[in-house]
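Sequence in, structure out. Go.
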Amino acid sequence: MRQLKTILLIDDDETTNYLNHRLLSRMNTAEEIRVVTNGEEALDYLEKAFAGVESYPRPDLIFVDIKMSVMDGFEFLEEYQKFNETDKNQTIMMMLTSSASFYDLEKLKQFPEVLKHYSKPLAEADVREIIEEHF
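Output:
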């Protein structure tokens, strides 16, 4: 399995972040796993990463939660649309959710950047599938 440079986890749930970070680390999926706890922090991180700020490595893969405080996953995606296509095309994005309601899944169709949604927390099979299919 290919190792990625950087994975960005966007989730306000500490337990989920801990479990996902532990799984991704154990599977040796990336040199670096960064965690931000809301959409605003994620946008700030990505602005710096896409601008080439050294301490903010560009993520190869982003996992974003739908339900977050401050700025939820959909609000984040609205803002993410404004980034340069070249930057977005170099990053794979997946949605993480604990409650995949019909409404949320329908709304996700508005965001072609999100390639698929997965239930929280991630499972080893999910991670393998993502790496094999997209990297």
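Check: The first helix runs from residue 14 to 26. The two ends are 9 Å apart (CA to CA).
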